[in-house]
Every structure is written in structure tokens, then in C-alpha cells.
Amino acid sequence: MCNMTFEETSGENSSERMESVAKALEEVLSSALPQGCITVGVYEAAKSLNADPDNVVLCLLASDDEEDVALQIHFTLIQAFCCENDINILRVSNMRRLAEIVGGVKPGGEPVDLHCVLVTNPQSSLWKDPALSKVNRFCRDSRCMDQWVPVINLPDR
Q: What is the three-class DSSP state of 147?
């Protein structure tokens, strides 16, 4: 069900709403990280999605290079799987900011693959997290406007 007002669909509140959703996304990631509810990497995400898709509450796809055909094929497959399993998906621009939030370096200095980030449901109260509710509502509203994978720009801090 789509409950968007005309103001929400018009351009006036659009940038404010995007900023609000980007901030909510940062809150979701920041709260999920210490709980161990973040899976990073295309292959790790695929394994997690295959093992327990019901536990995934959000899928983020990030890329600064739209020309990488292999990565785009992975994204297409992950998007299809997420749509099939009712998992909300967001495209995230600004991978540098995403790396700052979730930690972009493994212990040893090796960079982490942040092209796909999953947020999973802990046994605690993340489902009731207002920030997650805001992000999920944004995804649902975007689908109502036929934007199946909305793009969020994480602003620099």
C-alpha cells in the first residue's frame, strides 16, 4: 500500500527526505555493526542470502564504477534474489563514506569488499529500530513509484 502525499512525491521535499533517509541509513549501520549484524562483500552476502534469507532486513549495493560488467551482473542476481525474498534494497553512492561507517579495512590492512552490505536481524530489537523503519518505508514508497532499487547518497562528514 502506498501512502505518499503529493508533497512527498514532488521535488520540494525530495532532497530533505533523501538526507533524512541517508541519516537513518547511517544510524541503522552504526547500530547493527556492534551487534554483528553486518555482512560485507558480494560473495559473503551471497552465502548469507542463500543460508538464511529470512534473517536479512536490508541489502545495500554500492559502486563507484558503473563500468564493471562483472559487478553489475552480481548486482542483478542479488537484486533478483532480494526481490524474490522481499528484502529491501538500496543502491548507495559514496563508497568512501560507507567504508568510514562500517570499517573499510580488514585487520592486516587489506580493504574490505563493500560492494554488497547486508543488515541482518539480531535477536534483540533492531526490527523496532525507528531508523530501520524509516529506511524500509522509503524503500516501500520508492517501489510504489516504480523505483525498485532507489539510490541514496551518503553525505560526507
A: coil
pLDDT in tens, 80-112: 999 999 999 999 988 889 999 998 777 777 788
| Main-chain phi, psi angles of 51, to 5 degrees | -75, -45
Q: What is the pLDDT of residues 17-31, one digit of tens each?
A: 889 999 999 999 999
List of long-range contacts for 92-96, beta carbons under 8 Å, 24+ apart:
92/25, 92/60, 92/61, 92/62, 92/117, 92/151, 92/152, 92/153, 92/154, 93/62, 93/64, 93/151, 93/152, 93/153, 93/154, 94/153, 94/154, 94/155, 94/156, 95/62, 95/63, 95/64, 96/156
